[in-house]
Amino acid sequence: MPGLTAPSDYSQEPLRHPCLRINAKEPFNAEPPRSALISSYVTPVDFFYKRNHGPVPLVDDIERYSVSLNGLIENPKELFMKDIRMLPKYNVTATLQCAGNRRTAMSKTRTVKGVGWDVSALGNAVWGGAKLADVLELVGIPKLSYSTQKGGKHVEFVSIDRCKEEKGGPYKASIPLSHASNPEADVLLAYEMNGEPLNRDHGYPLRVVIPGVIGARSVKWLDSISIIAEESQGFFMQKDYKMFPPSVNWDNIDWTTRRPQMDFPVQSVMCSLEDVDHIRPGKVTVSGYAVSGGGRGIERVDISVDGGKNWIEATRYQKTGVPYVADSPSSDKWAWVLFEVTLDVEQNTEIVAKAVDSAANVQPERVEEIWNLRGILNTSWHRVQLRVGRSNI
Predict the structure, then answer these.
(1) Which fold has domain 267-388?
(2) Which phi-psi region, left, alpha or beta, contains residue 209 (left: φ > 0; alpha: ψ -120 to 50)?
(3) What is the pLDDT of residue 308?
(4) Which GO-annotated molecular functions does the record name (predicted)?
């Protein structure tokens, strides 16, 4: 692509914040400490998790950079940044979450394959850009379309990013045309993050943001958009990010029996406490995040100080001074909800968190029930151990 190159090595990597916990150096994958993650409702770019599959692409000429729209359409088109910026700009507050978030905890049950993420492989940002539904209209696809006249039913996003899983080819993913052409789905071609141009780690100069869906579908460093008849045949759609039962292993797996994962299930995590925390007896403030896919709100966050026998409801909030009500127009439907509760803890105990979304979906109790060989979608109850000690002073 003119103006955008994929380096062959890691010698031109961007600078990153020193507090990040590095899970892999080449390609670079890192997350912030859990306590830093919930220091603000909108995650600072430096603290937003970094998920890469190869060397970070480099833009050498933004004026020449373009995205091609092609496939099963009447009039293919080449779009430059100025064309995209001429479309109405939308700001959408949305949480992106890696499907492998909390994989490390799942791997303690049985070995899984993938980057060892703790609980911070997600972040909440204000994404700015053009709606994909408006972009598709430029090539003659009306809003709320299920199919083009030539039989296109899916929209494939192809990156300049090269990765070993694609045998050196580009990263790619797709969503149904009905999703892409629905303005209410808020799918963006984003060029801003938190009011600033995207940085290199997060897809500069242009990326897709698909709210409510696992992060693997929000393709960065966009090269082309193709209207195709079937789902993308890329590795990450066909041979990864699918949900299998605990009985499936690498000897008996049949990838064709499962559809690519889209929505993320309901999730909550305590971020003010580590997995094992040593505290003094008395009041303990527990805070963290809860989020659900598909635009579903968070109806409740329940906290237990006795391992799940009894529950206390936590306070939920998004913006200061605005009451959070699940699925209310005043709430950010694609964004996480922060929660907080103060507890009395006088002895060693296990604290548990679970969330319920607006469709009454609830997190499963035990990680063993949802274990899968790729370690994705660990949404089991989040647990931390508290060890209470008395000061000698």
Answers:
(1) Immunoglobulin-like (2.60.40)
(2) beta
(3) 94
(4) heme binding; molybdenum ion binding; molybdopterin cofactor binding; sulfite oxidase activity
Comparing CA positions, the residue from 199, 191, 196 lying closest to residue 17 is 199
Give, in degrees to the nearest 5, the angle at Cα 29 between 258 and 209: 60
Return the H-helix or E-strand segment holding 273.
Answer: none
Average pLDDT, the chain: 96
The secondary structure of residue 301, as a DSSP letter, is E
pLDDT for 321 equals 85
**One-character DSSP codes across 132-189:** HHHHHHTTT--TT-S--TT---EEEEEEEEE-GGGTT-EEEEEEEHHHHT-GGG--EE
Domain with CATH 3.90.420.10 in the chain: 4-239
Residue 391 pLDDT more than 60? Answer: no
Q: What is the CATH architecture of 4-239?
A: Alpha-Beta Complex (3.90)
For residue range 57-85, what is the model confidence (pLDDT) as tens digits?
998 889 999 999 999 999 999 999 999 99
* Closest to 97 (Cα-Cα) out of 77, 75, 117: 117
What does the block give as tokens for 234? 């890329």
Query: Please, which residues have CB within 8 angstroms of residue 318's CB and are 6 or more apart in sequence?
Result: 41, 324, 331, 332, 335, 336, 337, 338
Task: Give the Cβ contact number of residue 98 at 10 Å.
Answer: 24
pLDDT band at 1 (very low <50, low <70, confident <90, very high): low
Buried b (16+ CB within 10 A) or exposed e, 12-49: ebeeeeeebbebeeebbbbbbbbebbbeebbbebbbbb
pLDDT per residue as tens digits for the range 195-224: 999 999 999 999 999 999 999 999 999 999
SS3 for 119?
coil
| pLDDT at residue 367, rounded to an integer | 98
CA angle (269 as vertex; 265, 273 as ends), nearest 5: 170
Q: Per DSSP, what are the bridge partners of residue 288?
A: 270, 339
Q: How far is CA 244 from CA 263, 294, 379, in A?
A: 15, 20, 14
The ranges of the chain annotated as CATH 2.60.40.650 are: 267-388
What 3-state DSSP class applies to 277?
A: strand
Report how far residue 235's alpha carbon sits from residue 217's, in angstroms, rounded to the nearest whole number: 12
For residue 158, pLDDT over 70 is answered with: yes
pLDDT digits (tens, 9 = 90+) for 115-141: 999 999 999 999 999 999 999 999 999
